[in-house]
Amino acid sequence: MKKVVFTSCLLFFFMSCAHDKKEKSKDHISDKYQKTQTKNDCSDFLMKRKQENLNISILLDLSDRIDLPNQQVKDSAYILSLAKAFNIHIKSKKLGLLYDKMEVFFEPTPTDRKINQISDQLKISYVKGVSKKEWIPKTIHLYENNPSLIYNLARSSSKKRGYPGSDTWRFFKDHVKDYCIESCRRNILVILTDGYMYHKKSLRNDKNQTSYLTPRHLSKLGLNTPNWKEIMEKRNMGFIPANNGLNDLEVLVIGIENQNSKHPYAQDIIEAYWYNWLKSMGVKKPKIKNSDLPSNIEKIIFNFILNK
């Protein structure tokens, strides 16, 4: 009887050890899986084609700049060129490889709900199973008509409440990583702006760096001189970095324009402000362009988006 009890206890002991070892092995596999999932939030299949998967974000500056003559016409043409470039890219891909998206953002968010509803229609997502035949012409239609509707509503709203300004600095601080950067895609942010930034809720100063730039502020910087670049570098003038680690983001800024005819270097200074700012945050491919004829800018957009 003692032998039977001893044998049973011994058998139970070894079974328990084997079970514990199996559970630990499961836990180890589970931990390893979780670590792998944390490291990569997309499949190897998508990651290998990362540069072929476009994630285009368009940030519109709806400040008082949209009241400038022909500004709406120019911006609408620029936006349509982006849609055309996006479609050219989509046409070049096989249906099973589609993993591309494009959408529009504002900062601050417009108070008019209609603007937000229209911008929702501009969220285009191509994934496996989506009909290119249906959505390629639909993308052109949406991006050809909706921008004008947005601008008209923004101007109408501003007459009642005034223009809120452009808080691009805040967008980079609070939203750019969440909204514009995905690990499985080539991330491109296109900003339509005259280069000036101002919002009363985001006014910051750090020695000779600020979170804003207005025509009046620019006139007071003492840079209306041929050696403005040397002065800027010596005094470390520019925008305060709003973020860091944006090495997986490409940024194309379109529409930089001098609004002060008495300041011949203003446009160059604004472009330098933007370029230095984007580089300070780690943006890997910043490109700054002035306001120009839509036909000229279309070439810039195509080359940038299509990597030509």
From TrEMBL:
Highest taxon, organism lineage: Bacteria
Protein name: VWFA domain-containing protein
Source species of the chain: Flavivirga jejuensis
